[in-house]
């Protein structure tokens, strides 16, 4: 199927999907309708008569099958990781770790910071980050009455924002390769862009401040109030993206120890690193570790590592009779089942991304608007940040946005403002992560709600005000960067702005809550 240029119509499918998801709070049907609207637009422009309906159905199924085939390794990884989570839970490892950590972590601040720290340590890949941090920290945060919406935000805020500023990660590998294709030195340009990646830096600063000072606001403040006062960790909305109910009904072994959680998770981390290097060709010789990560494919590597970790879990649990053979194999089936909801939503998210990118040329349409806007050079970074955020939000993918905008931005800046090339590329990365962070059809957003056991729309609705708060401060920073081109002025202004906004918003939230309590 060849892509076509349909102008403004190319942004209709994501607008429909996102709008319906936010209004109905039901993401699967919203994604399906968004996909069908896009394939219908494609069919109208490529066929005629009654064939339009048949063409719509054929295009939808063909595209969905293709996207699922392209991402088979990720599906396998999710299925096996779900199996590993269930097996560790059945073996009592999660229970034992939760009891141990709860005895060491006695405050909400400590639990929040521990979640952030673990997320920062797992910087290899965002998929791995989201699900692993949720699995390990959920018992601890539940004990401290931290809402699942807050846990999902902490996971999401230490997934993509950490991966995008870590030189050795699957994200960095993708960006470096795309920067290299523009004629720049990929690794050097990426490292130079890190200090100007304001969204990633300010998001990390924000979660530390919020964790230490409990400066919640917006709908998140309501979730946290319910959790602290009544122990209500979720809304009443049925959770359709996780297998939390199945996990809660598991028969848990009383023999499990803390090491029964730590060893499989440590094995998963170690095997993930080794597998990425193996798939990247590092062990064949002739390349550095950075080249190995840069040449790798995260999906197959993570699938290999999750399978190897299941083997480790088998020899850890079965010979010690913590689980018998049948219980272990039943756990695999239950774990795969627990991931079905997330896999369905991910498949639909990949499909609507394909509609936008591969059929309707959404990225090219938005990119052309940027390239022909004749914007004043000092506003280029700020405008690029907004465009990247909008495009990533619409398509639900940071990586797709990187691929579309990096070549355009590098070319435009090298022609009209060479001194702003690095800052503008950093703004591209920052805006892409911001849009991905907000989008209900983003895979990392979906996986964060899955890892936290949180209703997906609850996670989206509580995270968006936080993400927008950071984005506004980033806009101020990129305007300063466009005028001064100075890192210290840019970062300093952005951080001061963030602190001021957080204090004001928290005071407003507390005042509103106090007034509502007084009325009752």
Count of distinct strands = 0
Number of helices: 26
SSE arrangement, N to C? HHHHHHHHHHHHHHHHHHHHHHHHHH
Average residue pLDDT = 81
Query: In terms of quaternary structure, what is this?
Result: single chain
- Helix share bin: over 70%
Largest sheet: none
Spans where pLDDT lies below 50 across 5 or more residues: 238-245
Instruction: Note the beta-strand portion.
Output: under 5%
Anisotropy-based shape: globular
Cα distance, first to last residue? 60 Å
Secondary-structure topology with pairs:
Elements lengths: L11 H13 L2 H20 L4 H20 L1 H19 L2 H12 L3 H14 L4 H18 L4 H10 L2 H4 L6 H11 L5 H8 L4 H16 L4 H13 L13 H5 L10 H21 L9 H6 L3 H20 L7 H14 L1 H20 L2 H10 L8 H16 L2 H19 L4 H18 L4 H10 L3 H29 L2 H33 L1
Notable traits:
520 residues; single chain; 26 helices; mainly alpha; globular
Overview of the molecule:
The structure is a single chain. Helix content is 77%, strand content 0%. With 520 residues, the protein is an all-alpha fold. The chain has a domain at 72-168 and 239-341. The longest helix has 33 residues, at 487-519. The relative contact order is 0.16.
In short:
By secondary structure, this protein is mainly alpha-helical. The protein is 77% helix and 0% strand.
